[in-house]
Amino acid sequence: MRTTGKLYVVGIGPGSYEDMTIRAVNALKDSEIIVGYTVYVDLLREHFPEKEMLTTPMRQEQERCQMAILKAQEGKRVAMVCSGDSGVYGMSGLILQLAKESPDLEIEVIPGVTAALSGGAVLGAPLGHDFAVISLSDLLTPMELIEDRLRNSASSDMVICLYNPSSKKRADYLKNACEIVLQHQKPETVCGIVRNIGRNGEEMEVLTLSRLKDTNVDMFTTVYIGNSMTREINGRMVTPRGYKNV
Amino acid sequence: MRTTGKLYVVGIGPGSYEDMTIRAVNALKDSEIIVGYTVYVDLLREHFPEKEMLTTPMRQEQERCQMAILKAQEGKRVAMVCSGDSGVYGMSGLILQLAKESPDLEIEVIPGVTAALSGGAVLGAPLGHDFAVISLSDLLTPMELIEDRLRNSASSDMVICLYNPSSKKRADYLKNACEIVLQHQKPETVCGIVRNIGRNGEEMEVLTLSRLKDTNVDMFTTVYIGNSMTREINGRMVTPRGYKNV
Lengths: 246, 246
Fold this sequence. Notes:
Helix content of chain A is about 30%, strand content about 25%.
C-alpha cells in the first residue's frame, strides 16, 4: 500500500534555528524531503542532515514549487521552505495555484516570523500601530501601483515597512520611495533599517526620513518609515499605540 | 553582589505552545517571572509551572508594563508576554516608552507570529502581495483616521487585514469598514475570516466582500479583505504574487 503524500509550506523565519516555531521544526522533522531556495536550504542542512534536500536557484520559483508538488504527489512527505513567513511574498500562494488541479493533495501552510516582525524587534517597536507592507520590487508589479500604495499609506499616516528596497538594477528605488513619502511626512520622521536580520552581521540604524532618502541599502535590508507618532527612544524606533499620559 | 535584571518582551504567537519560536521558549525558560494578560498567562502555566506568574486584567496595560519594569529593575529576569507578535499592537512599544528613564535596563524584544500570519496560513495565502494591517478599535485612534486608512488601502488595491474587527460596543464597525472598501473594490472581492486561530474551536470561512459586510464577527476573529487579484482556490483564499502563466 502506497503512503499518502503531504506537502508542508513552511515559513522558517529570518534564518537561525532559534527563530523557527516548534510547529515548523516538527514539520521539517516529519518530512522526507526539504525543497527550497539554495541559501535557505543551506541554513537548515546542519540541523536536518538526514533529509533529502532539493534546491533551485533564485527566480526559479515555479520550477521549485512544481518539484515539491510532484514529490508529494508521488507519495512523499515534503516541506517547501520559505524565509520569513510562508505567505508574505512567500511560496504558499504559488503552491496553492499550481496544485489547483490536485484538490486531494494534502497541503498544510505553516506561518513564520516575517522580516517586518523580526526586523521590528531589532529596532524596538516600529509596528505598534496600523502599518503597510510594500515590496519595492517591480519585477511582478507595475511601478505606478507601488508608488500609489506608498503615497496612500503615507497620506493616511501609516507606518510603512519596505521589502526588497534595493537591488543592483534598482539602486535609486528607495530614494524615489522616500521622495513620495516626503510629500506627506516630515523630513525628521523617524525611520529604521535592519540588515541581515537574525544572521551574522546583523546591523540596525535609526535615522530620519531625509537621511534615509540618501542612504544606500542592499537586498538583505528591511526598511521602516515611521508615521507622525513614531519617535526614537534610547536609540530604538517606537511607534506608540496611543496610551494616554505616556 | 546583586544580579542584573533583564526584561524580555515576548510574542508567543496565537496561543498554542507549538506556535512559539524556540527563541521565545528559551526566553521564558530563562525568566523567573512571567507577566501578562490573564488569558495568555493561563495558556503558558502548564508548560512553565515553576515560574512566578503575575497578571493584570484587560485594559490595564500600563499597570502590567510598570509591574514588569519594576521587577526587572529589582534585579529579576522577567518576561512580559504578548499574544501574537510583541510589537504589532503589542506591549513592546509601551515598555520602551515607560522605561525611557531607565536606559541601562536590558530590554530584549522577541518577535512572534502575529494573527495576520497565523490566520493567513489557515486561510491559505491571503497576504501574498502588498497589504495593510489596520485595527478597527477606536479606543486609542480617531475613527476618521481609521476610515481614511481603509479608504486609501482599498483605493490602491492593497489586501487589508483587520484586527479587533468587532466588540459589543462596536457591533457595526465591520459593516462600516466593508462599505468603505466597497467604494473601491467589487462586491465579489474574495475575503476571509478566521476565528480562534490556533486554539480550540478554530474556524475559517472564505466569502465575498458583500457577504462579509453582513457577517457578525467577534473579538477573537481576524478578517482579511482581498484585492482585485485575490481568488478562491479549492476553498482557500489566495492572493497571487503575479507570476506569469499561472
